[in-house]
Amino acid sequence: MIPETGEAHAFPEVQPFTDNWSYLKAELAWLDRVLMRSLAKQRQNNQEVDRVSKSAADRATSHWWKGFIAIDPSKGGSIAPKTPPQIPHPLGRYGDRLVASHENNIRLAIPTLCDRLELGHFERDLLILCLAPEISRRYERIYTFLNNDETNCRQPTIDLALRLFCRSDAEWRNARNTLSAQSPLIKRKIIQLYLPTNSSARSLLSKAMLLSEKAANYLLSEDLPIETVIPKPRIRK
To answer: Domain locations in the chain?
Structure first.
């Protein structure tokens, strides 16, 4: 029904986050959706590989031969649903609520840190990915399964982060560059990279990511100042 001329349009007012914890709960709900999709995809992939492969060598090389073998959807495969493109907010998901929170002087730790260090969306997602096990240890079990290697690493690896958050080759390349030694999160030791102790791999992709204790405390806090993570520069006399 088209409103009559002069009739007021009623638009719901964007509500700010009540506090930092409510913001984190919203981000964890988003992360859960991403992880559940990835878990379903990996379980399906494992079923397809087990059904077709005949030896350990077949399973080890499945990422090559799967591109040449058509998997019948009626026998365990599936067709990914098409989703319409969405116009992203400049601040990413929850962008309107972030603006409303800022206007109401509600401090949100991750957006504040991202703004101070001029971090992009991928780096923000890394912070959420690495912070999640500090909130619930069930994420450690999920990461162990999704890392899909022999190390049983309970922290997210760089490879996992790129698989979860990158939708194209260009995004993958740009995201990988944000994990160089000179990138803000690594240079300031907010996120620390390490090779799992029982891993024989040496590639950047195989490295796990661990949020520093100071960073975790700041991101979970309602009142810790950002200077606990990013000290003010010393003034030279």
So the answer is: 20-50+95-223
